[in-house]
Recover the amino acids of this structure.
């Protein structure tokens, strides 16, 4: 391990939370969570932007042991695995390394589209709820197509690495799988797209395999701690009126 980590994760129960939290759990390093309640706009507190996140968004990470302040879930995940969990990535410069970058980039596009599902289907975010069939159709087409790409990749990897269950890159569970899992997990709740109904059987099996890992089960259980009340993570950046 490169150094003694001293990590604080600023987060909320959003689509991207599992991406960074599962990476932290998989590498097995201690970390502290601060609840930045975006529903109550804690992230708009100017101190949050000044001291934690350059974009004013969640998730964000500070590693006091290296002085790094980082935002954007894919960048945070890269940092965690590069620095503390090399078994979840591939040697820089190898073909597998660039394939990993390819899938993380691809999943970013998919995440954006899945996120559109929230804008379309959530009446709180969309006053025109139910009146946007064109956008809805485009979102559904694009999300379904990209989920199919992941399914096809897993089928291809099953042939390339016979005798073991398939992963997205290099025949092993890696950051590419963690990244994609967070988004595939959200496809049902946010975009109302069920991978089983699309017949994406490889993706269904892959999702179940990741969901059964201790890291994923633990992170699933952490989500409720973002609620207010007993057991909640601390909220140190409550919104202040300008
Ligand atoms: N591309 C960013 C997306 C981050 C993002 O959109 N965060 C949302 C919550 S899911 C947020 O902080 N929204 C509040 C805002 O933008 O003010 C990532 O992957 O971390």
């Amino acid at each position: 391990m490169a150094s003694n980590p001293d990590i604080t994760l600023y987060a909320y129960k959003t689509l991207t939370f599992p991406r960074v939290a599962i990476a932290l759990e998989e590498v097995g390093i201690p970390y502290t969570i601060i609840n930045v309640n975006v529903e109550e706009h804690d992230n708009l507190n100017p101190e949050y932007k000044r001291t934690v996140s350059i974009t004013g968004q969640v998730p964000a990470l500070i590693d006091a042991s290296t002085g790094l302040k980082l935002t954007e879930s894919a960048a945070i995940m890269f940092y965690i695995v590069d620095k503390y969990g090399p078994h979840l990535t591939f040697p820089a410069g190898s073909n597998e390394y660039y394939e990993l970058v390819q899938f993380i980039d691809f999943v970013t596009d998919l995440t954006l589209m899945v996120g559109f599902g929230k804008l379309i289907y959530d009446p709180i975010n969309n006053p025109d709820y139910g009146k946007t069939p064109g956008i809805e159709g485009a979102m559904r087409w694009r999300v379904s197509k990209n989920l199919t790409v992941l399914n096809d990749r897993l089928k291809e990897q099953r042939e390339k690495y016979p005798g073991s269950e398939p992963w997205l890159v290099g025949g092993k569970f890696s950051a590419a799988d963690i990244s994609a899992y967070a988004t595939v997990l959200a496809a049902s709740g946010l975009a109302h797209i069920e991978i089983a109904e699309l017949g994406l059987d490889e993706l269904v099996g892959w999702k179940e395999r990741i969901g059964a890992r201790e890291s994923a089960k633990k992170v699933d259980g952490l989500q409720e701690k973002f609620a207010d009340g007993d057991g909640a993570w601390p909220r140190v950046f409550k919104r202040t009126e300008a």
The beta strands are 7-11, 31-35, 60-63, 68-71. The chain has two domains: 7-87+220-226, 89-211. The pocket of glutathione is lined by residues 14-16, 38, 43, 56-59, 72-74 (CB under 6 Å).
